[in-house]
Amino acid sequence: MDAHYKNDHIYVGDDEITSRRHDLPPQRKRSNFKEVSNTTSTQNSESTAIIKMNGKLRIVFSVTVVFFIVSLAVFGVLAYWISKLNIQNIEQKDQQSKNFKLIKELKNETRVSDGNLINMMNEQKDQQSTKLKLIKELKNETKVSDGNLVNMMNEQKDQQSTKLKLINELKNETRVSDGNLINMMNDLIKKLPCRYPEICYVGISTGLVKLSQLSASSVHEDCPLHQAILNSGRAWCAAKYAINPWIQVDYLVARTITAILTQGRADLAQWVKSFQISYGNTTSEMQYYQELGKVKVFVGNSDESTIVENDLSPSIHARFVRIHPVSYHNHRSMRIEMRDC
Fold first, then answer.
1. How many Å apart are CA 190 and CA 179, to the nearest integer?
2. How far, in whole angstroms, is CA 65 from its chain's centroid?
3. Half-sphere exposure of 202 (CA within 13 A, CB side)
4. Do the beta carbons of residue 270 and residue 235 sit within 8 Å?
5. Which contiguous run of DSSP H or E holds residue 70?
6. ∠ Cα 100 101 106 (to 5°)
7. How far separated are the first and last CA of the chain, in Å rounded?
8. Burial zone of 236 (CB within 10 Å; 0-12 exposed, 13-18 middle, 19+ buried)
9. Residue 29's pLDDT is what?
10. CB-based contacts of 21: which residues, under 8 Å, 6+ apart?
11. Do the beta carbons of residue 20 and residue 10 sit within 8 Å?
């Protein structure tokens, strides 16, 4: 009878002989083993690929973190230097602002423009020539001859020579200290005659002092500053209700002042009867002129036209000189001048 397979069973005729489920042919077993090996190999390859991928991701993540940290550090350094530069720029701007403020204050004190401030410094170089011009004008006004003019100049030189001679004699006889000698010298200068005091004027009425060098705490609208010079047609007048008014001269450089001259208002019966003086090399360090430890009150005018001269003994040496009216007739109005010999 023929044997045959059916559903993994062996039949001989209609009888089941055995099952081939557990008795597979050798070829079938080898095929199943290969399938299992291939499956295991594939799984190992996938695991290796996953491990490699994870390693690469870790490297990328680490590089990203390091880059982020370095970027933060660079950004911090840049921010620090930018802030430092900004602070320096602010400090420079503050310094420039201070410089502009100082220039503005200087302009306000002298009341001049930038160009005039430079011109004023240049004009100081021309003071000597201006004095010579004044002498020439004095010659024309008084109609003196050339010989008399020479004699006038010689008299001035003789006065200086006499001063020095007297000083030397005084020093030898009294053996005084240098400080006392200076004070005594100033006293001698006051006692020596001056036939032409206009030559000793320090500029207000002679043009050496410009209008820009005059200033006042207040100015009445009827009496501008340029009227403050001797023998002008009016005078300087303080504002009507001004408190502690003053008029000031800025000589730009320190000058020796030996006398103050005052005059009342020309067109009205107004004058200053008494006044005080303050002086200094800066407007923030002004000091009042004193005598015997007290602020001196100088006797002023008693009419509108007479020039009254007050000697300063000792003299003062300063850039700024102020006159402070104390008592007055009708209004605080005055014309002023100063001299140095």
1. 17
2. 53
3. 25
4. yes
5. helix 26-110
6. 95
7. 169
8. buried
9. 46
10. 8
11. yes
Quote the Cα angle for 314-336-200, to 5°: 60
Structure-token pair, residue 15: 């009888």
Long-range (24+ apart) CB contacts under 8 A made by 3-8 are: none
Given a contact cutoff of 8 angstroms between Cβ atoms, the answer to whether 116 and 123 are in contact is no
Are the C-beta atoms of 181 and 171 separated by less than 8 Å?
yes
SS3 12: strand
Q: Which two tokens stand for residue 186?
A: 């100033």
Q: Domain 201-341 sits in which CATH superfamily?
A: Galactose-binding domain-like (2.60.120.260)
CA distance 57 to 127: 90
The pLDDT of residue 147: 61
Q: Angle 255-193-174 (CA atoms, 0-180°, nearest 5)?
A: 80
Tell me which H or E stretch contains 262. Answer: strand 247-263
Tokens of 330: 């009708």
DSSP 83-142: HHHHHHHHHHHHHHHHHHHHHHHHHHHHT--HHHHHHHHHHHTTHHHHHHHHHHHHHHHH
Nearest to 190 by CA among 12, 339, 3: 339
Neighbours of 278 (CB within 10 A): 19
Walking along the chain (341 residues) 10 residues at a time, the average pLDDT comes out as 56 56 50 55 69 77 84 83 77 71 59 56 57 62 58 65 66 62 60 55 75 91 90 92 92 91 94 96 94 94 94 92 95 91 73
Give the gyration radius of the chain's Cα atoms. Answer: 54
Amino acid at 295: V
Cis peptide leading into residue 314 (ω within 30°): yes
The token pair at 47 is 């695991």
Which tokens sit at 228? 């403050």
